[in-house]
Every structure is written in C-alpha cells, then in structure tokens.
Amino acid sequence: MRKLWQKWSLFHPIFFSLFPVFQYYASNSSEALLKNIISPLIYSLGLMIIVWTILRFLFRDSYRSAFITSILLLWFFSYQHLTGQVESYTLLKYGFILIVVLFVAFKVRNYQKTAGFLTILGGYIFISSLLRIIPIELQRARNTINLESLRSDEVEKELQNASIAGTKPDIYYIVPDRYANNTTLKEFYNFDNSDFTDFLQSKGFYIAEHSTTNYPKTFLSLASSLNLQHITELSSLIGRDVSDNTPVFTMVQNNMLSEFLQKQGYAFVYIGSWWEPTRINRHADVNINLYANSDEFLRKFGQTTALNPILNEIFHKGDILGFSDNRVRENHQYQFEKLKKIAQYKSPKFVFVHMLIPHSPYVLDRSCNPVDDKEDGKDITTYREQLICVNNQFKEVIASILKNSQNPPIIVFQADEGPFKVDEMNRHGEGINWQKTSDEAARVHMRIFNAYHLPGFDKSQLYSSITPVNSFRLILNHYFKTRFETLPDKNYYIPHLNNPYDFYEVTDIVDFK
Q1: Angle between helical axes of 38-59 and 296-303 (0-180°, round to 10)
Q2: For residue range 332-362, what is the model confidence (pLDDT) as tens digits?
Q3: CA-wise closest residue to 21 among 303, 301, 322, 308
Q4: pTM, full prediction
Q5: Counting Cβ atoms within 10 Å, is residue 39 exposed (0-12), middle (13-18) or buried (19+)?
Q6: For residue 122, how many other CB atoms are within 10 A of its CB?
Q7: 296-320, pLDDT tens digit by residue?
Q8: Domains in the chain with CATH codes
Q9: Cα–Cα dist 63/115, whole Å
Q10: CA–CA distances in Å: residue 328 to residues 249, 251, 312, 371
Q11: Where, by residue number, does the polypeptide cross the bilayer (predicted)?
C-alpha cells in the first residue's frame, strides 16, 4: 500500500497540467465546446512531460523534479490570475516572480513529504473543475435535443417541395458585421452614405431603407435568417436564464438554407471570419479563411499563461496568441481579395460571407491604409473612416461579381446587427443592463443596412422595412417556387449578454415612424 501511495503521490504534475485547461473551459463554456480543449490539453501535457523529463535528468530525483515541475506549471498557468489583467505586467516583473518561486522551491528540504500534499491538492482542484463541467455538458445535450424541435415544419415542407426551372443563379449572402443603417449613419455618425447606395442602385440593387435586424447579436440573427424563421422559442427550449451560446452556434452551422441549396446542386462556399462560430463551416464544400486553422480557444487560453508576455516581447503584440491590428487588417484584405475573384468558382454556388467589418477594431482609414485602433473601438470617427474603406472595397467586389458571373446573380448584402452606441453600451454591449439603456441606443443597434440584387424579381414584393427573417422566404418563393408566408417583421432585444435567450420585443421602439 505504501509503494502504491508513493507512486500516486507523484501524480501532481499531471493534475497541475490538466486543471488549468478544464478550469478555463468551465469558465468560458458559454462560447466553447468540449472538443476545443483537446489541443490545449495536448500542449499542456506535452509541456509538463518535457519539463519533468529535463528536471529528472538534471536532479536524478523523481520527487524533487516533480515538485519543481508543479511549481513551474503553477507559475506558468497563473499569469492572468496573478497580474489581474493579461497585459498588466511586463515580462521583467513576471520573471522576477519566477525567480522568487524557484528560490522557495529549492529551499524545500523534504520533497517526498510535500508530494502527497500536492497530489491531494492537485486532484481536488482537477476534480472540482470536472464537477463544474459535467452539468454544463448534460444541459447542453438536452438543449441539442430540444433544438431539433425548433426546425420549422413549414420550412422543411416548403423546401422539400421546391423546384427551379432553367438556370440556377449563384447566390451570395454577404454579412458585413455592424454595418449601420443610412439613417443611423446620418444622425449619429454625421455621414452621408448616398455615394454607396447610389452605386448599388445603379447596379440594380433594391435598398431596404427602413430595415432592422430581428435579433441583437450575430449568432441569434444568423440563426434566424439562415433558417428562415423566428427563434423566440429558444426562451422556453433552452431557458431565459441560460448563458450558453453554443446551442445556437449549431443552428448557424447546420442551417436549413445551405442544406436545401446543396440538395439543389449548389456548391456551398463559405468565407468565414476569425470569430470561432463563423470561422469555418464543416458542411461547406469550400472554406475560405486565412485563419481557417486558427484555434480561438487555444489562442485565448494561451493569453492567460506566461507564454503571452514572452511572445509579446519577441513579436508584435498580439500577433501570435491574439488578433493584433495587423492580423485583423490582414484578414480583411484577404477576404476582399478572395471575394473579387469568387465569381470564377464553378456555378451554381451559394456563397456565405461573414466579415467582421466595419465592426471594430478600426484598423483601416478611408483609403484602406493601416491605422491603429487607439481608442479600442470607441471612436465614432474611426468607424466612419473604416466604413468609407469598406464601401470602396465592396464596390469593387460587387462590380467584379456582376461582371464575371455567367448569369445574373442573387446578392443579399445585409448586416446582422448595427453598431453599439458606445457612450451607453461600450464596444460590444458587454457588462451592460440593456434594459437601462435609451431607446435611442436600441435604434442605433437594431437598424441595419440591407440591400438586394434580385434579377428578374418583381421589386413590388419588396418593402423598405423588410427584416432578415423574410429575406430568403421571398427569394425562394420567386426562384424556387416555394410558398412561404411573410412573417411579422418583429424585433427582439435581450436584457444582458448573459441572458441571450431572454427575448423581449422592441419593434415599436426601433421601427421607423
């Protein structure tokens, strides 16, 4: 029994390498999936094995090498917790903490006695993190089952009976994140957007001047528009007090629109952002993303460790573990260049594009030259400057698509949400009770830019206040002979980002009167 305990007492480096990953996941499970922990677990265990192996070779003492390994792991994974903020300490200051920690570690006289205590401590915090995760995963499994009942029978029936005569047009669904409505741009940003709207109208676009988003966050808005239905039932299916966003991420991934079009012979071309839920789509035939292989969970976990200040000293701040202004700018430019050539892909194709622009950070001036977002997304002037760049780039994109398409394409250019009124709601509405903000803030955020290029479509069927939930209902009715009814163009708000399914209606507030 004693020998068995001696072996178990050396398990503490394993526990201290596993615990940080599980703890970080438990704290961020509202936007992550269990599979996201695989890569950081591999790296964490690999780091532990390398360090422990080297120390055993140097000291020829299993207990001493295990003790120092655990101390080093605690130091390495405690960076954010010790400093309070990821960027608050310099590498020099944090290195001094390491020297103190190692000094204390080498002063320990009986490593064998401390091994048992460390193993019990490590086992306790590891099991504690597991106990936090288990109910989360059980609830998530129930939510996944519940979501199946949300798939609209009406949508399924109409899509099954759909048909198309003649040539299948390419379909582009371009979502420029937080592109404000023209009224918002004029009233709050002192910007006249007529140059861009005139360009679109000259190319045959219909501008829905009074359009609003149905839901106030990207994942909710896209789950609704891509599935051609309202999603207010999520309040009862998932729960008003649940903060977990991931069930609805699956609605964006497994959406009914792309599934239907693929069955109709369309190639699904997916141009995603660096934001994890729209980074790639595993159902797409083609994924186009400069950072398709970038793991957001791994990057953000790495930012909590001592690796973050080390890499920031060597490279440009945020270039490796974060998304620095350089990387954000690089991804925007990559997306625009790919879009200018996208019409050359084999037809018919459904191209979904989510671009986190004019969304902050504001890293491009009106001429698309690099600038630093010194105000961290809170300067309305830099939003306006970046928007001018966006407009000019999209002019080239749309002109290229129209010129190089074999047949006139369908193009939906539609924001998922508007910008936030930063003096009331910060950059992203974080940490704010939305119910205590003004009606004006709701109008700024919920009013969106929305434009349609629909060749051969009777534009009298369109209307200025159309919302995203009805976009593809009307489009499929015309091009695929479906018979969808037009749903109420209602708008729903949430009280807090921690309550994404606690919907309440704000149609009367955000509607154009």
Answers
A1: 50
A2: 999 999 999 999 998 899 999 999 999 988 9
A3: 301
A4: 0.88
A5: middle
A6: 22
A7: 888 888 888 888 777 777 766 666 6
A8: 2-136 (no CATH), 171-510 (3.40.720.10)
A9: 7
A10: 22, 26, 17, 11
A11: 7-25, 37-55, 62-79, 91-108, 115-134
